[in-house]
Design goal:
The complex is a heterodimer of chains A (414) and B (478).
Chain A: H1 2-15, H2 20-36, H3 51-58, E1 86-91, E2 94-99, E3 108-113, H4 125-133, E4 137-142, E5 152-158, E6 166-175, E7 180-189, E8 195-204, E9 209-216, E10 220-232, E11 237-244, E12 247-258, E13 264-273, E14 278-287, E15 293-302, E16 307-316, E17 324-333, E18 339-348, E19 354-362, H5 366-374, H6 379-395, H7 401-411
Parallel strand pairs in A: 1-5, 4-6, 5-7, 6-8, 7-9, 8-10, 9-11, 10-12, 11-13, 12-14, 13-15, 14-16, 15-17, 16-18, 17-19
Antiparallel strand pairs in A: 1-2, 3-4
Chain B: H1 2-15, H2 31-40, H3 45-60, H4 100-109, H5 113-119, H6 126-130, H7 133-144, E1 147-150, H8 151-157, H9 159-165, H10 176-184, E2 189-193, E3 203-204, E4 219-224, E5 229-234, E6 246-247, E7 250-255, E8 260-267, E9 281-290, E10 296-303, E11 308-311, E12 314-317, E13 323-332, E14 337-340, E15 343-346, E16 352-361, E17 366-375, E18 383-392, E19 398-407, E20 413-422, H11 425-433, H12 438-454, H13 459-472
Parallel strand pairs in B: 2-4, 3-5, 4-7, 5-8, 6-9, 7-9, 8-10, 9-11, 9-12, 10-13, 11-14, 12-15, 13-16, 14-17, 15-17, 16-18, 17-19, 18-20
Antiparallel strand pairs in B: 1-2
Helix pairs in contact in B: 2-3, 3-10, 8-9, 11-12, 12-13
Classes of the chains: A alpha/beta (414), B alpha/beta (478).
């Protein structure tokens, strides 16, 4: 793999126009990845999902060279018609379209980054891989006191032109004081057996609000790793919603750093799995300042021989007095072969805190099914009704009414 | 290096004499030392081979390092793996020689003078010993057919039982410390309860003659045959003086059809001084196997001592309808560290497990609950309920919860709850208003917090444990 990586990297550098500074950084990132390789179950974070093995088993040899010079046509059919929105269209890891047609152009500053975000480059080798092979990174800066009028939908598309390829993509958001943005991240996968490695960075200033909804619904055979890093200043709010269902394998990782007082982070997620899909959500909330709040609700419905994993960690620094942390994960197993693994973790160094977590897993309640059947529903409908109710609980947490309605329709929960 | 070897040889030469007063195996861990231990205990050949196999395995094993409390590297070649009980010459002559702090604690716990001496290895006068309760108990047990003796004695007298069950729950291929124990264990307890016998009293290491010296590498084996019941107590509330820093004991429990074992531990070893110097490393492997149908194993532990406590008493629920329980109170103060919890491995149908864990950390200590609930594919209709609560006192300590939950069966239910909080000002205020001082108030609230676990302890133990909880937290408020 090492030779392949090096050769692909050289090919990539020679066909793109990066500055010397960028190349130097990309080389360092590659070296770091070469040193550590793909994470395996030996690492605590990857205990339940050995991505090294999963890639080997499902893809085999990966192609790391991704030709960003290929032009891709965008089919308008894929765009959401129900709501007016701004767009970013990414095809095979390359940004093809950026349009902020509903916003005031002087309130948004769009640049490409030349000094990279080096966060946790050392302990997460997939971020190193991303840093070394991703194309130019866009930085979207929302200026002070500006709120996005319409949501921003990020379409992440793959097409048949790539297969067995590693696609790396990175995007940066900076929200200045009192600004706000709503993002829907929609995957539309038409390719087969790619390893897609996404990294989203969010920097939230004072009073900023981020609402981020990630939808993976279309059935596909890709393997995905999606990392969102959210840094939050005083009084800022982040809301993350994850619907994970379509891909064969996904690990969604959300890391929130609550660095200012009264900041709060909400992460809600749904796993709706069938066949032999294997999905994981890992949340990491760091309370590093007083009076911060975090809340996580993750629900899984697991059918056939699929596997759902939730790893959640609440970390409370000794400075972070008056922290309020709550975490709940629930799973329904519908089939003998289904599997649910959880590791809800609390690491607490401050005494004046209220932190708790709960985790429950099991089958659908027989009494409830019986009750519904006695009211005239057949078993299948009764089960469906119960599952819908179970998952709707999470969707109802979405604070934006318009998007909630849209997503309900999209997911098929009413 | 060469000098050291020569030094070793010298030790070897003299060390292997049979002078009762001071025989000692030479320092270091090697095959000769294992042969020496086996030889001196007159063990049969199969056991020696078993030990050597474990040692062979140990050589390829690595010391685990995933635990939260880190400790300085232990030089395993610098330890004595066998030394006979110390002669009275080396032991403290009377209570005045002891640390006054220790005596004060004894007083608070209300431990009789004779007991205090015994605990510290002070020569107890013969009269006291011969009429001790222990001897009377022994007769009752023999009548019922219960075997309760040291494991060395069991190896001589009941080799079939030992051979059948030793290592059947903690195999020699297990983790580093368990394998180390298998290779070099010196003594421990052996209990066998014959079919359909209910053990009429609480068995305790304490009553077993010759058990006053806790070994560094203890091995305990308890077998409850079909339909039997036993309640076993380990340790005692009084602080123990001990020279060995590393303790790596193995405890194996086996419950056959319809049998029940209740294992209670109160551990109060030397935790080190206020600045975290010294103190015992308590790295114990405890595992129970519910082998038969309808069997039950229940662990109860009160952990207040040791500088580092690192243990996970576990249940393997193999028999259908078997039940595993774990009740724990762990208290850390000053610089103590604890990483403890349990593993419930559900293999049989209709198996049930319950985990109640209460952690209290104060001072600059660190406490981790780490547990595993694993329901396998075939364990249909199994349930688990876990509750772990942590109480923090002060902002220099830490409390962590790391549960692993694995559910592979759709007919089984797992529920897990955990909370972390501090003693509420309101509760404290209320108690103080009623005339309690702050320390008493804290003691009362903490005892309430621990009540669910304290209730599980045998009666006479519970009272002492309750006092111990209060004492362990002294000086942690204000």
């Amino acid at each position: 793999m090492e030779l392949k990586l090096k050769a692909d990297f050289d090919k990539f550098i020679s066909t793109s126009n990066f500055s010397n500074q960028e190349i130097k950084f990309k080389k360092e990132a590659l070296d770091n990845f070469l040193k550590n390789g793909f994470p395996s179950r030996k690492l605590e974070n990857w205990k339940f999902s050995d991505i090294k093995q999963i890639i080997q088993k499902n893809i085999g040899e990966l192609e790391f060279y991704n030709d960003y010079n290929i032009e891709n046509k965008i089919n308008d059919d894929i765009f959401i018609k129900e709501i007016e929105h701004n767009k970013i269209v990414i095809v095979n890891g390359k940004v093809e379209q950026l349009s902020f047609e509903y916003e005031e152009s002087d309130k948004i500053n769009l640049t490409t980054l030349d000094n990279f975000n080096q966060n946790s480059n050392d302990d997460n080798s997939l971020l190193s891989l991303n840093n070394s092979f991703s194309n130019k990174i866009y930085n979207i800066l929302v200026k002070k006191n500006y709120s996005f009028k319409k949501p921003l939908i990020i379409y992440q598309i793959t097409n048949k032109k790539v297969s067995n390829t590693n696609i790396n993509f990175q995007l940066n958001f900076e929200l200045e004081e009192n600004s706000s943005i709503k993002i829907i991240n929609l995957s539309d996968d038409n390719s087969e057996k790619n390893f897609i490695n996404n990294l989203f960075n969010f920097n939230l200033g004072k009073n900023a609000i981020l609402k981020n909804y990630k939808i993976d619904k279309k059935n596909n055979t890709n393997i995905k790793y999606d990392y969102s890093s959210i840094a939050q200043k005083e009084n800022s709010i982040s809301e993350t919603f994850i619907f994970s269902s379509g891909s064969d394998y996904i690990k969604n990782e959300v890391s929130c750093n609550l660095e200012g007082k009264y900041s709060s982070a909400f992460i809600n997620g749904i796993h709706s799995l069938s066949k032999n899909k294997h999905h994981e959500i890992r949340t990491n909330t760091n309370h590093s300042y007083e009076n911060t709040k975090s809340y996580q609700l993750i629900k899984s419905v697991i059918d056939d021989s699929s596997k759902s994993v939730y790893q959640g960690k609440i970390y409370v620094d000794s400075k972070a007095q008056k922290t309020d942390g709550y975490q709940l994960s629930k799973a329904v197993l519908l089939n003998e072969q289904a599997e649910f693994n959880a590791k809800p973790e609390l690491e607490i160094y401050a005494d004046d805190v209220k932190c708790s977590h709960g985790s429950a897993s099991g089958s659908l309640d027989e009494d409830s099914i019986f009750y519904l059947m006695s009211r005239g529903l057949d078993q299948k409908t009764a089960k469906k009704l119960l599952i819908n109710g179970f998952l709707l609980d999470v969707v109802e947490k979405i604070t934006d009414e318009e998007i909630k309605k849209l997503l309900k329709n999209m997911i098929g929960l009413n | 290096m060469r000098d050291k070897q020569i030094e070793n040889l010298k030790d070897y030469k003299y060390g292997f004499s049979t002078d009762i007063d001071s025989f000692k195996a030479p320092k270091g861990l090697n095959e000769d030392v294992i042969r020496f231990i086996s030889n001196i205990k007159k063990e049969p050949d199969w056991l020696l081979q078993w030990r050597l196999k474990a040692f062979k395995r140990l050589k390829v094993l690595e010391e685990p390092d995933w635990q939260k409390p880190k400790y300085p590297k232990i030089d395993y070649q610098d330890l004595y793996y066998y030394s006979a009980p110390k002669s009275f010459k080396e032991k403290p002559k009377n209570l005045e020689d002891l640390d006054p702090k220790l005596l004060e604690t004894y007083k608070k716990l209300g431990i009789p003078l004779q007991e205090q001496k015994r605990l510290n290895g002070i020569a107890v006068d013969a009269v006291f010993d011969s009429v001790s309760v222990a001897t009377t108990f022994k007769d009752t047990l023999t009548e019922k057919g219960i075997i309760f003796c040291s494991i060395s004695e069991a190896i001589q007298k009941h080799p079939d039982l030992v051979k059948k069950y030793l290592g059947s729950v903690i195999p020699i291929t297990d983790h580093f410390f368990a394998t180390l124990n298998s290779a070099v264990f010196t003594d421990g307890s052996f209990v066998y309860i014959p079919p359909n016998v209910k053990c009429p009293m609480e068995l305790s290491t304490y009553f077993r003659i010759n058990a006053s010296d806790t070994g560094q590498f203890e091995r305990t084996l308890i077998i409850a045959d079909k339909g039997s019941y036993v309640s076993y107590l380990e340790g005692c509330t009084a602080p123990m003086r001990d020279e060995n820093q590393l303790h790596a004991a193995n405890v194996e429990l086996i419950a056959l059809d319809d049998a029940e074992i209740k294992y209670s531990t109160v551990q109060n070893w030397y935790p080190g001084d206020k600045d975290g110097k010294g103190g015992i490393y308590n790295f114990v492997t405890k595992r129970g196997l519910c082998k038969g149908k309808n069997s039950k194993i229940s662990w109860t532990q009160v952990e207040t001592g040791s500088a580092i406590t690192w243990k996970y008493p576990s249940c393997i629920l193999k028999g259908d309808n078997s039940i595993g329980e774990f009740y724990s109170i762990a208290i850390t103060n000053n610089h103590q560290k604890a990483d403890t919890g349990t593993k419930m491995i559900h293999l049989g149908k209709n198996t049930k497990s319950k985990i109640i864990s209460k952690g209290i950390s104060a001072g600059k200590s660190d406490m981790t609950y780490r547990g595993l609930v694993d329901i396998s594919k075939n364990a249909s209709n199994s349930t688990n309920y876990t509750q772990c609560d942590s109480l923090l006192m002060g902002n220099k300590c830490g409390a962590h919860t790391v549960p692993y939950i694995k559910n592979k069966n759709s007919n089984s239910n797992i529920a897990h709850e955990a909370t972390t909080s501090k003693i509420s000002e309101d509760q404290l205020h209320y108690c103080q208003q009623r005339g309690l001082n702050q320390e008493e108030a804290v003691g009362l609230i903490v005892n309430g917090f621990c009540k669910e676990v304290l209730q599980q302890l045998p009666m006479e133990f519970a009272v002492e444990a309750q006092k111990l909880v209060g004492i362990s937290l002294e000086g942690s408020v204000g």
